[in-house]
From TrEMBL:
Organism: Rhodanobacter umsongensis
Top-level taxon in the UniProt lineage: Bacteria
Keywords: Membrane, Transmembrane, Transmembrane helix
Protein name: DUF4381 family protein
Membrane spanning residue stretches: 34-53
Amino acid sequence: MIAPAPPATPSPLGPSLRDIHLPPDPAWWPPAPGWWMLAAAALLALLLGAWLWRRYGRVRRQRQQILLELDQLALRHRRDNDAAALASGLHQLLRRVARRVDTLATTQRGDAWRQTLARMPVDAGTLDVLLALDQQIYRPQASFNAVAAVAAVREWLRWAVKPAAWKRTAVVRADA
């Protein structure tokens, strides 16, 4: 049998202490939950920014395409001097753009068409010129101020191609 070791005798200066050991430095991976949330927020902001940039580009290209078509109609009128074709082209362009927000715009006549056109913040004179286009396309030998018509359509289209420019209209019920 092995004899037990004699008990350690305390030194007269006190117990023998070992040096203080610090814990190891924290690892850099995986990051703390706060860093994960910050990374997720940054990724979400980046995706939202990319989506808004693409949307803005698409809206800008559509706006340029619409105004280019208006310029082509005016140029064709200067070359051919066909007022009926100009009135018809302007009217069709107005209907196509108005159809983006109001699907019934292609079939509206009279007061309903006036209300659709009045949803843009244009003055009464511009609105009257736009409404006169509806009548000019049915007249043989249409004689009207083409410069004023193109300017009125341009002013209305500049407001209409901005998505936030459309005024909301109340839904009118038949039983009311």
